[in-house]
User: What shape does this take?
Amino acid sequence: MSILRGNAIVGQSGGPTAAINATLAGVIHGAMNSEYIDKVYGMQNGIDGLLADTVICLNDYFTDETSYERLKRTPAAALGSCRRKLPAETDAKYKQTFEKIIEIFKKYDIRYFFYIGGNDSMDTVAKLSKYTSECGYEVRVIGVPKTIDNDLLGTDHTPGFGSAAKYISVTMQEILRDTAVYTVKAVTIVEIMGRDAGWLTASSEIGRLLGLPSPDLVYLPERAFDMDEFFTDIKKILAEKPNVVVAVSEGLQFADGRFVGEGTQGGAVDAFGHKYLAGTGKALELAVKDKLGIKVRSVELNLPQRCASHIASLCDIEESFGVGKAAVSAAEQGASREMMVILRDNDADEPYSSVFGHMDIDLIANRTKFVPKHFINERGNHVTDECLRYILPLIEGECYPEYKNGLPVFFSF
Assistant: This one.
């Protein structure tokens, strides 16, 4: 192992989660206790903040374990986030942008770079790793996974997914009980986050594995959505009972590739070219009302899926903190151009456990991990017990925040 001394910098990118700050706390804790790292800096608003030189020194904020514990239980991104896509080599701004980054690195003697984010954030890690290597600036660049969507390759699951899945599965238990009190025929459609992968929507069915109520129908974006089959499924259940609860992913698509909820957003896209999606539940609500003429409502779980830290998974928070610390250890040992991964360390019949590793960023960036075919039933309107057994241990355990005057106490810089 070649020893590299200097300072570290960490940033957060993409959509926040209930666990992204636990990962940040892990990186800071690991770096503050490293014999090779002196100061630890934070980028405010991710790579945007780095380019704007809005960088803060984090050393003074963490003088005891209380600060780390409070940060671990704080939702959203404490350092702020962004959705900037770094330019490609063919872009006219490529050299200017990356030279600016190297200038900032030299100013703060940055030799360790940690970026906490999802798929698009790993694109930043890959590009920055390539440029620093080519220009001869020695810095170890590590991506640390984060996404409630659980759609990153290489890792068994992503930090943030377990807490979001816990919120969804618990909220679904509450919705199912609320909708079951009347005898009037009605349909409730619950829209759940998930552009390309349906992992979160799958978590809505966990109750079934435990002998508890579960949605009557569940539709994931991995299967083309057919409106006629949807109506047939609903009619069949209405013939047996008055209330139907349906869980749908926001990214549902028809066979021709059109998003079910696409029309409500006018085709707007983000910096990475992804169409803004919202309204899948509302579109289906209007369709059911028009076709069946019965009482119907749609519920969009929206932001609480990613920021409900009051119901975070203890497993998720502990792993998120652990993978952040492991990222520093990996970098100290020479890893660079890698993303940290979480791997299951047990057989199906043993209690759940995990270990941390790392993987070449080029095998991960700009790719998607979908819910596998064998995790979805033949009809495409439910997930299998095997899928639920995969998710269940990730939502277990409670990690309540500190409370004062009835409200949680959160960390802020």
